[in-house]
Amino acid sequence: MARIVPADVSPAEEAGLHSRELETLSLLKGQLSQDYTVFHSVHWSRSYEKYTVFGEVDFVVVNRAGDILLIEQKNGRLDEIDGELVKSYGDRQKNPVDQVVRSRDHIIEKFRAQYGGKLRLSIDYMVYCPDHKVRQLTAAALERSRIVDGSGADELPKRIEQVLGPGRPEPYVQDKVNEFFQHTFHLVPDIHSRRRRLDERFVRLSEGLVNFIDNLHFEPFRLRVVGTAGCGKSLLASHRYARSLEAGRRTLLLCFNRPLAEMLRQQLPPGGTINSWHGFCRRLLRSHGLEVDFSRQEEPGFWTEVTEQMLGLELGSSERFDTLIIDEAQEFEELWWLLLKECFLQNDAEVLWLEDQTRSNRMGQGNPDGITVTYYARDNYRSPYRIARYINGLFPEFEFEPRNGIIGLDVKEYRVANARAQLAVVDKTVKGLLRQGLAPADIVILTCGITRDSVFHGVEVLGGCPMRQFTGVYDRDGERLYSPGDMRFTSVARFQGQQSPAVILVDMDLSEGAELEQRRRTAFIGMTRASLRLEVVRNE
Fold first, then answer.
1. What value does the mean pLDDT take over residues 264-271?
2. Structural domain count of the chain
3. Is residue 210 part of a domain?
4. What CATH number is given to the structural domain containing 165?
5. What is the per-residue DSSP string for 211-251?
6. What pLDDT score was predicted for residue 363?
């Protein structure tokens, strides 16, 4: 079996579920021997005095001697025009032979610039067109050994061996060539390209849920979606919000967590109302001339008084909402929903109720009053393969289908005996993540408990980074005030509906005892917030 670089391709991808190039990669991996290393999706660049030229090679195969074979794959229909193979892209045409020869020349230049004349470089090329059958090879200006068309697609590995061969072992040359492709061409994706790749995949895959919901038709449209973490609930909420505004409907999007509401408010188009339940109450009461003393909000019964004031408001038909979307609805109290339904919605209003199945307090119960249809979404598109596998192994009771398709980075787990040890581990972990190229804003430290009870509460700097956290003080509008810093520290409960490239989960206790089921749920939710890297600190 050939060595594949980068190896950051999941078993699902290797099976060819996502692209023709992955089918080829799977073929080469399985049928070439260990004498060969296959680099895929190689991006090259060559800097000149005033500009930089960029290009890409689909596959680079290196044998034991360090000999190189470049493979350009062209899928779909090709034309043979004036003795040349041509791939048409709208009104543009590209010659795959010219592309791979140009790539070869630039690679030779860059290799010489890096190593001088100290190392020889043996480099050849091949064009692979699995959907085309070449009619006139001589007219296409290609030797028979340098092209593999649809008639011999399954023989690609054999043809590679005929052209390249395993080579006499020359470890020094082979190592330098491999190093060249790995480092000079930045073949192994950096942290930010990995993050971008994962984010793009999450959005693309999650659109399946969006499209399914968009094609449901019943009246009134009042739908409850119970979904696993990472299924795309917040993406669905954003989509339906924008769609409602485009239709000219008065739209209200409510989140249980204020941080999620603030994030969505920044990302989504203006014209509707996006808020937490408590923020919505404050804004609506103020618009009716009622001021609320938020310095009392920690007092028992404060929010009950606010709810009673809301009940006393008289809203005209023009003030009621045509669309209501509730994200993290499992945290909503029944009274809040009934108040919204009876006092603030049009009779035929659309309602999208989005609920996390892991944290749901309504599982086993009926739908909220007035909502008749439920859809269960069990596919997790956020968690990369390694993170999903770790979570599934630790929490088999929370069933979900990992659908991300990318392997991702390793999960690290630490066991600590006390709070001081936990601080030391996380401090070291943060420094390690920064060295890998993550920015402080890419890192969030999540406590499984309450923030003020954590050893991290009040810590100003960790791993050399100022830590942003709630100061315990509110402004006159009831908004939380945070300490300066880009690296965040908050609780799993307050981070629901959000995600971060790197999550460090702390204060996690899975020992037998009271509320074990709830503690396991909280840890599960915290782990599924990670889209790239997960670090877990467990209390012994």
1. 87
2. 3
3. no
4. 3.40.1350
5. HHHHT---SS-EEEEEE-TTSSHHHHHHHHHHHHHHTT--E
6. 41
